[in-house]
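Agenda item 2: 4'-deoxy-4'-aminopyridoxal-5'-phosphate complex prediction
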Amino acid sequence: MRTVYVNGDYLPENEAKVSVFDRGFLMSDGVYEVTSVLGGKLIDFEGHVKRLERSLSELDMRAPAAMDDLLTIHREMVSRNDITDGLIYLQVTRGNPGDRDFHYPPADTAPTLVLFTQSKPGFAASPLAQRGARVISVPDMRWGRRDIKTVQLLYPSMAKMMAQEAGVDDAWLVQEGKVTEGTSNNAYIVKNGRIITRALSQDILHGITRAAVLRFASEAQMEIEERSFTLDEAMQADEAFFTSASAFVMPVVEIDGTALGDGTPGPVATRLREVYIDESLKRAV
Ligand code: PMP
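Presented output:
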């Protein structure tokens, strides 16, 4: 049985409790982070904590703990759950005001802080990364502040189900003819050696993996264009890929039934996956 963290306590998962009045439950009034663990160490941890601070501040939500304590709590979760490879999920909500009310509760209401682990031994050696992911496009029907990492994940869930029903691995979201991002990842295409990905704005989540991958790509003198691309452009690209803390760099080999290149993972995505995993492991805490 897993040990989970709730508001200062480490508990067996079947003893952990959150109120039915919690704003996270009633209003999706919560934000989250997912940090990957490789070899018992946290990948890109500082980036995840910085984004959490930004999400909290954009929503006028109180910080649930000193940010330094979050590293200690994450490490404690890794060790208590004996995680070698896997994920640490963290969620902060605006807490329990004792009743249901649309207005934010008084500012001194204690936020709720929950963490749990997901063990995935050897998950960096992903069979999907060997084969390459197939995606479909679906309209992006999410709210307008996708730069805040909230727990309002119903539409991304619906899009994952559409992908599953279509027999593919994921969906890319399209707004005004342009790809915003994947259901739970940032989207890229490669054309004539140039890496093209949508620029940061309120339209997409500012991926921590995206930031690291673009940094490593530019250090390796690869050309990067931060701009929107159309679905047609994506289907005519040499290759494509997506990034996230749980998928790292994932080659995409098919979009809406059209194979990219020869239908196998491309050299740029494959190389970036290796570089990202190697370099992040060196910096892991
Ligand atoms: N976009 C969306 C919509 C996401 O849910 C995620 C993963 N949480 C990402 C991008 C990738 O972000 P990160 O690299 O920080 O995991």
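Discussion summary: The helical segments are 23-27, 45-58, 67-80, 127-131, 154-165, 208-219, 231-235, 267-283.
Owner for follow-up: CH.
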